[in-house]
Amino acid sequence: SNKYRPLSGSRPRPGGYRCHGYHCLYLRLRRPFLVLPPLMEWIRVAVAHTEHRRSFSVDSDDVRQAARLLLPGVDCEPRQIKAEDCFCATRKLDAASTEAKFLQDLGFRMLNCGRTDLVKQAVNLLGPDGINSMSEQGMTPLMYACVRGDEAMVQMLLDAGADINSEVPSTVNKHPSVYPETRQGTPLTFAVLHGHVPVVQLLLDNRANVEGALQDGAENYTETPLQLAAAAGNFELVSLLLERGADPLIGTMCRNGISSAPLGDMNSYSLAAAHGHRNVFRKLLSQSDKDKGDVLSLEEILAEGSEPGDKRLAPQANGRGTLRTGKARLRALREAMYHSAEHGHVDITIDIRSLGVPWTLHTWLESLRTCFVQHRRPLIQGLLKDFSCIQEEEYTEELITHGLPLMFQILRTSKNEVISQQLSVIFTQCYGPFPIPKLTEIKKKQTSRLDPHFLNNKEMSDVTFLVEGKPFYAHKVLLFTASPRFKSLLQNRPAAENTCIEISHVKYNIFHLVMQYLYCGGTESLHIRNTEVMELLSAAKFFQLEALQRHCEIICSKNITTETCVDLYKHAKFLGASELTAFIEGYFLKNMVLLIELDGFKQLLYDPGVCSDILLDLEKTLATRIHSIHLSTSKGSVV
């Protein structure tokens, strides 16, 4: 649709408020939408207001004016007349200055209409600086011609002596309407910004500075033409600028508003990577490979960084410059790798990794997250295989807060054997080579005890337990203080001479071991068979005998194997034996590479009916382990 194209034959002019009003009326009369219009119509109308301001970026007021025209009943006031956009600004000037300003404005209008035959007359009107005069926006006629892409006018202005490397001033004293995003812009900058390849070619042929306003050795506070072309993904312009010697390693020290990138040293590699322009990024790399000559490879640079004493890399007379260049390229690629991963352009991230640039934990995690969301299984497998390349020094809080939830989510949803095996290797690596923290005995003295001679002795007993139909004789004085469970069993019984209590869910031999523990005052005299441990653990848990329960848990932890660990975990989980459960979870993580091949362990992981939330429990256990080894104030202490 061309319903909102600007009026033919004219461009919005500063001070042309009447023209602007007629243009807006033209837009209003042809508005066909009764509901929200398409995005392209928003853009078209907003750009019309932007062009009226002779600006190169749409601001919020442009959008409000577009809403006023496109949406019925929207409460947006019309744009106010600004002093720099009309002739009222001249009321503070004397007659001579006002006349000069009128003449200069007329000269700029004559040049901006694109008539090359008016160049000589227009130059005479511009003032003492002639062809290099600057408007209130700090722009020269050559800059405006480059913005329009008017190749013939650019050539005419160059022939008339226009400064090909003029810059938009950074101060607003003489030029109050300078837009922040155009400061230090050159004609080449504006031609590249608007994608006018023939104009860029013409400027470069006339020896325009290929780096824009950047001077040799100076810090760069604005984007170079190559940075702008790389960010826009203009392959033709990038190729042209590289051929003319543009340096892709130059970065911007501080953002000035042309791009929305964050603060930081964003060079051409980073900009192409951040915007996902893979072909442009590869072009930048290929140009660097052509120009590097004797520059060290990335592998040599990395080796130099880790082994500073390597004789092979001893700096020589001409080696220091190449080493610096190589390190600068490595830093640039690392920065680009970060931005490509941060913006989800995983293909570029993988390309950079293939050059030998090492992973950081953050770039690896962001790449893995993108591949998981995009269901790119081959890339997920490649990334998981590469986890071993991440140094343990990289293990930060991000691994716990973002990495582990992501990897366990992949394990939970993928159910792919290769991915499960790779994740098992990662979990085992993160758990570390240290042994699983041991369970310790509970040193708890009983408040009362009897001679073992009275164990199951009817003599002087005042309570009888019926276990599997057999009587077991005991003494209240011992049991009443043994545990809260025994106290509750004895409290509500009639005060008879001998109380009889039936125990229905414990075997006789197990109950005998429990009583032996109580009468002997500890676990030293117990001889527990492997077949009795789990039942004794259940009985100790039921009778609330913590020291006996812990003793059984320690026996289980010493006898655990890959064949018994799953059943043991289910039993411990059922009983609520948290210490034993945590130990077995550590055993799972430490031996997960072997366990992931077993059907019983797979069923435990993936069947919610077997044991709920086991993956969440494993994640918490691994997080605690990583924090204690790598992140705590006393690193290396094992929890």
TrEMBL record:
SUPFAM superfamilies: Ankyrin repeat, POZ domain. Residues 461-521 form the BTB domain. SMART domains: ANK, BTB. The keyword ATP-binding does not apply. Keywords: ANK repeat, Repeat. ANK repeats lie at residues 137-169, 183-215, 221-247. The keyword Repeat applies. InterPro entries: Ankyrin-BTB/POZ_domain, Ankyrin_rpt, Ankyrin_rpt-contain_sf, BTB/POZ_dom, SKP1/BTB/POZ_sf. This is BTB (POZ) domain containing 11a.
